[in-house]
Each structure stands twice: as structure tokens, then as C-alpha cells.
Write a structure and sequence with these properties.
The chain is built from 4 helices and 5 strands. By secondary structure, it is α+β, with helices and mostly antiparallel strands. It has 2 domains: about 45 residues, no CATH class; about 50 residues, no CATH class. The strands form 2 sheets. Strands 3-4-5 form a 3-stranded antiparallel β-sheet. A two-stranded antiparallel sheet has the order 1-2.
Length: about 130
Amino acid sequence: MKVKYYIRYADDFVFMSADKEYLKNLIIPIKKFLGEELKLEAHPKKIFIKTISSGVDFLGWIIFPGHKILRRVTRRLMFKKLEKNCYQEESLSSYLGMISHGNTGKIKLNILNLKSTKNFPPTKNSLF
């Protein structure tokens, strides 16, 4: 297929082009390749052709030119899991590391503020 601009992570793909027709014409060869070579099937409801200015939804992030934000569902699940785990150091460090890859300063402050207001007992070797 020789696609110039693409991103792949495991079974997630993003193909980019300024030419909408080019992208439309890629769908059939991609489906054929997935089926014949990889024995996979593309989910019909997960094929989108969008403008880059509306953001690319990929791996829990919405990626825009110049910045990326955490998807709402990802953010909600993260807070729910942190609450369930009583903001344990391992979970907290993992999520803070994950969100450090995007424009998430307010989310980080929210996490740290919630942890401090919940009065959870300090953990062994607590960093926060």
C-alpha cells in the first residue's frame, strides 16, 4: 500500500492524507490486506475519515495538531480507578506518568488535590 503517513499500535491504525479520495480508496485494500495476510477483520463502525482539525481519537487520547488531550471516557475511568484504589502510590504514579504525555496540567492538579482532600493514610515510602 505504501502509505506515507500512518500510525500503528497493535491492532489500531491511523492513516493520514490531505486527499480525502485517497483515504476512501485505501479502505478496500486495507480490508483485503487485513483479511488475507493477518486473518483480521476491520470493524465497520470504527472506520472514519475526518479532518485533522477535529482531532484523531487514538489510544485514549484525542490528538490535534500541536497538542493532545485525554479522552473524556479515559479521564473518567482513571478517576474512578484511583478512587477505588484509594490513590495508592503505584496507581497514582502510573497515571501521572501516562498523563504527562499530553496537555493535562489541570487533570494533574485535580488528582493531587483530590488525593490530599480524601485524607487517605500515607503509604509506605509515600511520595505524595
